[in-house]
Design brief:
With 269 residues, the protein is α+β, with helices and mostly antiparallel strands. It has seven helices and 14 strands. The chain folds into two domains: 8-152, Fructose-1,6-Bisphosphatase, subunit A, domain 1 (Fructose-1,6-Bisphosphatase, Chain A, domain 1, 2-Layer Sandwich), CATH 3.30.540.10; 161-266, D-Maltodextrin-Binding Protein, domain 2, CATH 3.40.190.80. This is Histidinol-phosphatase.
Amino acid sequence: MTGGAVAARDISHIVDTAHAMADAAGAAILPHFRQRALDVENKDGTGFDPVTAADRAAEAAMRQVLAERRPDDAILGEEEAATPGTSGLTWVIDPIDGTRGFVSGTPTWGVLVALSDAAGVRFGLIDQPYVGERFWGGFGSARWRGPRDAGALGTRATGSLSEATLMTTFPEVGSADERAAFERVAGGVRLVRYGLDCYAYALLALGQIDLVIEAGLNPYDIQAPIGVIEAAGGVVTDWDGAPAHRGGRALAAANPTLHAAALERLRGV
């Protein structure tokens, strides 16, 4: 990502564009969801990393919105090659985060939209179009809306691991060493739950859980959650306490105190 600051006059247009991208992606995805004839391809010859027509159609729809509204910005997405830009801003998009859940019929996948510059993530949006929930944050605001309610996002003030709820997508987390590090944290919390992909990060920003720990992430997996969670008052770093926007290992926490306690256990201190 090249350098560049976001002008105040540009913020409203950026936020409106992010919402338009999520709307376009949802419209492209929903006709495919829970269809028994869904065509699923495997991108991983040694495991199962699915991609569907819905993934590709959604990313194409999101890119079309950017072509019309913000053609000077760069794009980094999961399904198509990166597109360079001249503005110093990069849209980092995942049309369906949680495709394994999508092909299984669970409503825990989501559309991810982030805007970054050389300093990191400036804005993030997590959308679950099937249940009608959207979470977004950046530029001094953190909001959500759903079919029954809407309001400000805010993370919890949980002060100790023994009171915390921890989530991750895969029980195996990553390598054997990464699994062992995760277990050091999991062994000290009140509750551990699995399998929600990006929806877990949304729940953290909403104040429903306290920690998300994952490994093996790409930038398009984590940048939107970073934007939402940090705007809601949380902390997101890698497992060494450094910025996590380039992917890899991520530790998301509701507050600095809880983040420090989890980071200590991840490091084996």
